[in-house]
Design goal:
single chain, Isopropylmalate Dehydrogenase, Rossmann fold, 3 domains, ten-stranded mixed β-sheet, 22% strand, binds nicotinamide-adenine-dinucleotide, binds 3-isopropylmalic acid, binds manganese (II) ion
């Protein structure tokens, strides 16, 4: 029997509840189809941080490199200052394993109501490929007030302080923060090439590139050049270059226009929460942080939703569908499709609905319903 070894990080808030259901569903499908997933649990997250002062160290990341896949619930906790867990765990993994693709399908499933009046599953069905290791996420920047400043790279800090002096006129009694985005041609080309390949393999006809090259020309001209270069290799594909602000409007007005959307890290982050809303909510939106040759991480698009912690009201479907994406990545295509089918049917039947879907089913009841449906389908 084939055995896959997967690291699990349940994380904070609703993370443990939704990941428990994801593991349940993957276990059920693997039993039905005759393969095995061996889970190793890691307690990274708020409690671990508050107890040890640590997020992820180099040794932990090295340890995680033993796995082909990581399954993450979500991190973030009101007891911890924003950024510490998000950067120290989620971004640490994305960057360490060079997971340069963030694959985020936006698909309204039958039986789910989109907040968009008059739009159905035929209209809301596209994929966002979000660049995942560069842009404004690289952590380069700093802050300073009149007399002191702290940041990451001494040289850049000093240079920027000089530049800021010219640009904004530094006032010794005020404070300043700056954050630098970088996009490399090499990384832009590989993530854009992935989006074209994916589009071609999935019978799509249009690839839309997102940026704000109109106001951030340094960073996004590199991005656009890479797009034009790669697009030339796919003459059959229609292409367009759109600004992120207008795109957020078009996502709402004409979602049917979109097939493949490729976006820089930060705009991709924002636009995909909007996309999640179009498909019925964050509780339904999966994602995969992919390095085709390396350790990849699968997680719901949402975070730890602390206000729902322990209440068993969160919808586990985003996590369950992320589990399907993980199985697809591991090569268990049939298992992945089966999970998607079971989720679709449970949603279409509409008997078991969590709170976000207008029902009162508990998190585990949704997981159980999907497991029952899997057994019926095989
Ligand atoms: P969030 O995605 O956690 O939740 C926003 C809202 O969406 C929730 O309050 C809830 O109303 C709804 N929601 C989210 N998941 C749901 C589910 N499964 N079922 C039903 N409703 C759901 O975003 P936030 O509140 O901005 O962030 C909370 C924490 O999560 C923060 O610390 C943030 O940094 C972190 N975060 C982590 C990740 C990650 O670990 N990958 C991703 C996003 C946010
Ligand atoms: C996401 C989250 C993350 C991001 C945070 C938690 C680092 O919002 O996965 O969309 O901004 O990428
Ligand atoms: Mn996000």
């Amino acid at each position: 029997m084939v055995t896959y070894r997967v690291a699990v990080i349940p994380g904070d808030g609703i993370g443990p509840e939704v990941i428990r259901e994801g593991v349940k569903v993957v276990d059920a499908v693997s039993e039905l189809l005759g393969f095995e997933v061996e889970w190793s649990y890691y307690e990274y997250g708020a409690d671990y941080y508050l107890r040890t002062g640590k997020t992820l160290e180099e040794d932990d990341l090295r340890e995680l490199s033993r796995y082909r896949a990581i399954y993450l619930g979500g991190v973030g906790d009101p007891r911890v200052e924003p950024g510490i867990l998000e950067i120290g765990i989620v971004l640490a993994i994305r960057f360490y394993f060079d997971e340069y693709i963030n694959l985020r399908p936006i698909k309204l499933l039958p039986g789910v109501r989109s907040p968009l009046a008059g739009k159905g599953p035929k209209d809301i069905n596209f994929v966002v490929v979000r660049e995942n290791v560069e842009d404004f996420y690289i952590g380069l920047g700093g802050r300073f007030s009149g007399t002191s400043y702290s940041g990451r790279l001494e040289v850049v800090r000093s240079l920027y302080r000089m530049v800021l002096d010219l640009k904004v006129g530094v006032d010794a009694s005020d404070e300043y923060g700056f954050q630098i985005g970088v996009i490399s041609g090499r990384n832009a080309r590989r993530v854009i090439r992935f989006s074209f390949e994916y589009a071609r393999q999935h019978g799509m006809r249009r690839v839309s590139l997102i940026d704000k090259a109109n106001v951030l020309p340094h960073i996004y001209s590199v991005w656009r050049r890479a797009f034009k270069e790669v697009a030339a290799e796919y003459p059959e594909m229609e292409t367009e270059m759109l600004f992120a602000d207008a795109t957020s409007m078009w996502f709402v007005k004409n979602p049917e226009h979109f097939e493949m959307v490729v976006a820089p890290n930060l705009f991709g982050d924002i636009l995909t929460d909007l996309g999640a809303a179009l498909q019925g909510g964050l509780g339904l939106a999966p994602s995969g942080n992919i390095n085709p040759e390396g350790t990849s991480m699968f997680e719901p698009m949402h975070g730890s939703a602390p206000k729902y912690k322990g209440l068993e009201v969160a919808n586990p479907i985003a996590t369950i569908l992320s589990g399907a994406m993980m199985l697809d990545f591991l090569g268990e295509i049939e298992a992945a499709r089966l999970i998607e089918k079971a989720v679709s049917e449970v949603l279409l039947e509409g008997k078991v609905r969590t709170r976000d879907l207008g029902g009162s089913a508990r998190t585990y009841e949704m997981g159980d319903a999907i497991v029952r449906k899997l057994r019926e389908l095989v």
